[in-house]
Amino acid sequence: MGRLITTKYLLIISYDGSNFHGSQLQNDLRTIQGDLETVIEKVFGVFSRVSLSSRTDSGVHAEFQVGTFDVEKNKLDSFSVRSALNSYLEEDIRIMDVGVLTSDAIFFDPRKDAISREYVYIFNDSQVLHPRFRDYVYHVKGKLNEHIMNKGASLLLGKHDFIAFAGHSTSIKDYTVREVFQSTVTRTEHFVHFSITSNGFLHQQIRRISGLLLQIGLGKKSPDIIKHYLDSKVRGEFTNVLSPKGLCLKNIKYKDNFLQKFLTN
Question: How far apart are CA 220 and CA 244, in angstroms?
Fold first, then answer.
C-alpha cells in the first residue's frame, strides 16, 4: 500500500471568547478547537486534529491565534478553504487567513515553534461604561494612573521566575522562568492598555499581573511591589485574578517571518 499524501493547512484565527470555554478541547463544552474540528470535518469529510499555538482560558479573546491541521491531499486552495470554513463557523469565530505548508515545513508546530506571544489586558476607568464594551474590558471604579502602572510594568522586562503569578493549573514540575521582551501601559482616553510580550506565559499569569497593576494604578500599592513578587518562590502568592474578558491574544511570532511565507494576506 502506498504512503498517504497529506496537505497541512496553516490557519490565522480570530475570536470573541465570550461564549467559549477556552481554546482547548473539552467534553460537552464549546471550545475554539472543538468548533474548528467540527467544521473541518464538514468541509473535508474526515476528522482532523487541530493544533493551536496559544491556550486561552474561558472568556479570553484573540485577534491572532495560529493553528494547523492536515487532511488527505486535495485541490482546495487557501481562499476556498477559508471561505468554506467560515461558511460553517459561527460569527464569533473567523478564519482570517489560510496557508498551505510546503513539504519542508510540514513538521511546523504552532505551539513549540513560537518565539513570542503578545497579549493585551484592557482597563476602562470611565465613570459609566458603554454597554458595547462590557465583554471586552475590565471596568475600574476609580481613576487609574497609567504612568505609575507603566513604571511597574517596566520592572517585568527581562528573565524572571513568575511562580508567584502562577495559576492552579501550573504543575509543581513546570519550569516557571519566562523572558519578557516588551511590557508597557498606555492610555487612549478612558482605555488603559497593558501590553506584554514574552517567550511564554504561565496559567493565569497575565491576569494576576494585571490585578497587581490595577492596585498600583489606584495608588494602593507601590510599583516596587513587583520586585517582591518576582523574587518570591511562593507558588501563586499573588491571588487576585482579574476577569478574562479584558484579555486578548494580539500576536504570535516565529523565526525568520515564517508565517509570511505561506499566508495570502
Answer: 22
